[in-house]
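Model the whole thing, not chain by chain.
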Amino acid sequence: MPQAKMKKFTIRFEPSGLKTDVPAGTTLLEAAHKTGVYLSSICGGDGYCGKCKIIVNEGQFQSRPTTLLTPQETRENIVLACQSKVLSDMTVTVPKWHSLDVGQILTGDDAKRFRNLKGEAEVVGFELDPLIQKLYLEMTPPSLSDHTADHERLYLAIRQKNDAPIIQMGFRVLQRLSPLLQSSDYKVTVTVGRRGGTTEVVEIESGNHCRRNFAIAIDLGTTTVVAHLIDLTNATTIDTEATYNSQISFGEDYIRRIIYAEENDAFDELQNRIVHDVNDLLMTLAVRQKVDLQDITACVCTGNTAMVHFLLKLDPTRIRREPYIASAGFIPPIRAAEAGIQINKRGLLFCLPSVAAYVGSDIVAGVLTTQLYAKEGISLFADIGTNGEVVLGNKDWLVCASSSAGPAFEGSGVKHGMRAGAGAIERLAILEDGSIELKTIGDTHPTGICGSGLLDTLAELYKNRIIDRMGRFRIDCDSRLTEGQEGLQFQLVPAKEGHQEIVITQADINNLIRSKAGVFAAIRVLMDATQTKSEDLDAVYLAGGFGNFLNTSQAVVVGMLPDVPLEKIHFVGNTSIAGAKTVMLSQKALDISEEIAKSMTYFDLMSHPTYMEEFIRAKFLPHTDLSLFPSAGLVDSLQ
Amino acid sequence: MPQAKMKKFTIRFEPSGLKTDVPAGTTLLEAAHKTGVYLSSICGGDGYCGKCKIIVNEGQFQSRPTTLLTPQETRENIVLACQSKVLSDMTVTVPKWHSLDVGQILTGDDAKRFRNLKGEAEVVGFELDPLIQKLYLEMTPPSLSDHTADHERLYLAIRQKNDAPIIQMGFRVLQRLSPLLQSSDYKVTVTVGRRGGTTEVVEIESGNHCRRNFAIAIDLGTTTVVAHLIDLTNATTIDTEATYNSQISFGEDYIRRIIYAEENDAFDELQNRIVHDVNDLLMTLAVRQKVDLQDITACVCTGNTAMVHFLLKLDPTRIRREPYIASAGFIPPIRAAEAGIQINKRGLLFCLPSVAAYVGSDIVAGVLTTQLYAKEGISLFADIGTNGEVVLGNKDWLVCASSSAGPAFEGSGVKHGMRAGAGAIERLAILEDGSIELKTIGDTHPTGICGSGLLDTLAELYKNRIIDRMGRFRIDCDSRLTEGQEGLQFQLVPAKEGHQEIVITQADINNLIRSKAGVFAAIRVLMDATQTKSEDLDAVYLAGGFGNFLNTSQAVVVGMLPDVPLEKIHFVGNTSIAGAKTVMLSQKALDISEEIAKSMTYFDLMSHPTYMEEFIRAKFLPHTDLSLFPSAGLVDSLQ
């Protein structure tokens, strides 16, 4: 049937009122994408995550049956957008939980801390010297007594403002240079970027445009992609956004995604997904802050090695296969447009360097941000994402390792897990009377549990003897324990006024324990190898997208971190994005991040003789060897 | 009429046998271009130069009447290819004088000299260190004990062979890197090029391809474009080729072409013409030497400032207009493909720096080649092309100027002028009995006169009192003096067996004298300004496309060069292309050429108080002031 004859229908999204025309048979999720309406979706439209719920107000549609909707939801005309095909003009309502501010909280303290950089360089130890800068130049026009050519005149003017021993200029900029200098009476704004030891004239504009210069920092997580929009003129983070990585439908961890890409020759598709996610975040931030994409002149990325390879379509296959290497650890700066990222078409893309196939630039960013590399005393850094990477060291040495922790603390693989967005339970305590006290992000009715809430849940269930040291529910202990579709589950929040109940299942708990055990086993291996004892640790930094708040004591209770005095444990949030921003704002920080990446010694846990044993021992709460957790004695005595 | 219905005819070119199909009405010149058959053509098809003569063997055609063919030629079915439109299938013969070896002689001694560079670096003062090199690298593949990423592994291997503090790599090369290293078992050839202080990995290939690495040097003359094909593996010039600049139909000098381009918004067309000429030369050389264009990895260009601007489509308009400046004097290396030059698609284009709007990189190349910049004693350098540029100086100072000499000595604007190709009269003497002795390039029947022959002709006519000191024919002196279509003309070669007679006209002589006067006046201005006397000159270098041979004494006889002992005068041929090749083969030479360009002081003759006066005085043979030419006394006594 010729496409031209296919019937089109108008879909209107409330409350925004945005509309689009789509052919019959289009899913509501596709229609939302087309309209630019944001809907949460982990599985990318495959119908198994159940996140893309939407309310149908009017119109005909065809939906596949699903177990992901309760009878109550169905009565309220809630459908899964990805499973609902348009058969007429429709009006639908996007529930609040999709709203775009869900990502904001991932920045939290981190963003606040970073704002201090402005004029207070000593706070982070770097002078403000962004990788990309706009310079306003007023040149004396050429005359009979000064016949310096335009190109050389510009270079002289740049060098008066900037230390630039080697200046480069692309051909297209060179061709536009002379007409532009003449029409602007030699008053221009040049955008100059650092490209591996040289300074590139990235762009040239007539007049003074220095006050509009933005950059985007991206943390490419396996599960979550986070973006911060930075105003380079005053070094402030002006907005933040996050989304689930839409590659997730090809596998929860990146190893599975590499296998999928190899088996299906789907490297293009994997790249398209992550680039699409980045561009979505970019658009959202730009629209919300009314920033012209042309004024975003740089992008700095951090992420695990595989994600960076997917983004740039570099060959990732030997990350999962002997000899377990990256195609590139140090990525030269490229034009962002070459990777499909839709900032200024001549804007630059910088990637922080990685250490090894399993220790990416996100970890280098963490070491940079916590200043582990500069300290006299020994510090421990653990970043809990889909993988759990651990770094130990000081100014003289750095060792690192990576455990495949799984994304449980990111809310994935947990029945009511969600990322740290509005409605997420971020704190949870079981009180003496057995009742549950909780706090949600945005103080709304709870819709799920984010990382910090999950850590609390695990610790509280254990402390209150609802689970035993192996994490198994004690069957007789609590009336809130019921048999659900997936086995035993514990009710945290009862159903109420159309809101679903929130539970934690045995499978959830097993996933959480597996994650914490992987991290702790990695810590043990590094500490053993360097003969570091718990008392030798000056500081322990816990990073990750748990949420704004983290009760660090719970990390010791469950045995995720070594038992050190609580004042030594610092929750540092998303250090990956913080490091990306530090580098964006300081050339020196980029140089140091390269030094960090070069100097770190990588321990391969898979081939390590004691890792498996450490992992099995760490699968207890807090550990099989309670002597490692003296302060856990109280909890233990309750068991 | 729909194009599809337009009738097509087959044109066969003898002796090559090459064929093409063209629509009715196509000119034979267009058909030749399409087939890749080379035909001389100065005017670019406008029908006024008369160079594109071709013999029709068979077939119907329509020709416009022309005075550029003799009745004898018409009887022999000779036509102007550009004025003859195809009306049927045709067979035509391309006369030998078009043959592609006509350019070879422009290299001559120069090419021979350059071959010495191999292994004899002291000859030209530079070590062999080409701007672009192929390196064969055998790397140890990664293993469990050596997990260096591919990208960093390659950089380490490059640095073992090459001093490369800053290495850059384009994104497309980076993306191909890992698969290629794996499939080649880590044995690859990298092509590395110098890009303004950095080393770029331009290309990467599986296996060893080091023995195939070529570059092309281009001299972009206003009238003539010369190309040398260089084998970079042994630093030898393996072939050379030349063509008239096909921009010539837009004006004989570049000022007229800039005006044309401005008035007709024809900058694209001007660029297309010169790029087409360069590609034509490139193809010719590549086909003849069986060199794959992919194996030509670099192009080095020299030329006057305007020609380089046309080639790169940089704005040339202020070259002709106050404040008389270039858009760029120092052109950053770019990818040749960006300018449309059809070497390896990632190959680099280097342009030598220029000094000013009227002193281009060809002159910098001349100073480099003659080593003027390094000598204790004062030398004079004069390059006679369409303009006549002059440089005076030594290791401490350099001054330069440019006179609009006109292209007479390049054979343009002279009735039987031609470039130094087969059949050109390169030497001419009038013997005591009044008979003319001459030598042609290739020792064939003469078909025209090249630069050295024109200089001889002017000097011999003067010495034999056939012209007076103002260059006017003495009407009564010789039976070979006749009245032609354009006034008085002197027969040098009588018509014979279908060959046309060769004459020199009064207009030709006036053009030649104007050229030599411009050059000498520029020399006088620079010598006066620096208080340099003739006897202070250690050496005088005469450059230009005169031909292989030049009788330097004649340059003194006519008053083109100062009257210094003949052993001090050196004919150095095409130093523009020689300099381009030196730079191609030596990074150091590029650095020095930049120093030369920066340090030269430019004298603007148009605004100079005494230049016009000097010019008028120099329009005599040899000069109004005979005291400047003491050794010309003998000739003068004859007048």
